[in-house]
Amino acid sequence: MTANPRLLQNSHDDGSSAALKLLLTAICTWEVLYHVVRYLVKLCLRVSPQWLLDDSLLIGSAKNITAHDKQTNGFSNGNQVPLNGSPNGCHERAALLEAKQNLSQRGASYAVSLIHAFYASCRGVLHLYNLRNVSNLDKLLIPSTHAVHGIITPRWAHLQVATTNTVFLSYLLYDLVHILIQYPKLGGADTILHHILFATCSVINGTYGILAFPFGWLVVGELSTIFLNLRWFLLKSGRDKSLLLERANMSFAASFFLTRNVVYTLGMVHLFYVSWKELSMLSEVSGVPVGWLLLTVGCIFLGWGLNVVWGYKILKMVRKKNGNKKK
């Protein structure tokens, strides 16, 4: 009976301890980055809010404050005086305060998410390129050595995938903590379940050294997250009617369709049809328990189904918006 490998054993040339050190370092890096960004956002909102907020929020609020000062001669008698003589003034002031609150409380989390999405999607493209010509089995299993009888194996490319997987796992763990602390502002129960499931799959893959090529086409899908986060910043900073938001929406829809529908579907065909023989023997050659392998493959299949549903909904929204423009 083969002993189970240590945690993340196949994620580093130096074994489990080195991989776990990388994991902890990455978690700490995300956390430090979060606090740095949060400090900078708050500083910017206090000193130079025009760098983050749209002029419509700032100018509208400034006009109403000026009108309020004129009505009270610069003093307040303790009574509520409607800004600018109408409820609109109160609404504009509330919109500014809400924008500042959203950016100061949640802006750092979305900024870190954007950085992670950029890193993961770029690394995903790199992994797909590096593993494009290796055998189907080598696409699914990390070779045990860098060379066999003088012939170079793709282990170096797999270890690059393993490093990305470890960083990806560190982000999921970091983000899960923040979601729980700010629940439900950063995500609901579905987001928590998503993070727990894929963190588990990440640990399984990193421990047994499996599914490197599928990991590549999975994390390429993070490209759409970049535009989703940019969309959030535009909406929360008062740019909900800007041309930038329209372009961000279109970029999100296009990148989602390309990476999470087209590339993901091609990856599913490769995994379950082209590489079916290698996938069916993966438990035997890698030592991963069948249950763990089924969990990982099941999550991949579930993710594909969700992306199909989301892609259909996005397509309907795009068609509806284009139809309204024609009218």
Automatic annotation (TrEMBL):
Transmembrane spans: 208-230, 251-272, 292-312
Alphabetic keyword roster: Membrane, Transmembrane, Transmembrane helix
Main location (coarse class): membrane
GO CC list: membrane
Membrane topology: Multi-pass membrane protein
Record-linked PROSITE patterns: TLC
InterPro entries found in the cross-reference section: TLC-dom (IPR006634), TLCD (IPR050846)
Nucleotide-binding keyword on record: no
A family per Pfam: TRAM_LAG1_CLN8
Domain TLC: 102-323
Localization of this protein: Membrane
Full protein name: TLC domain-containing protein
Species name: Cyclotella cryptica
Origin organism lineage: Eukaryota, Sar, Stramenopiles, Ochrophyta, Bacillariophyta
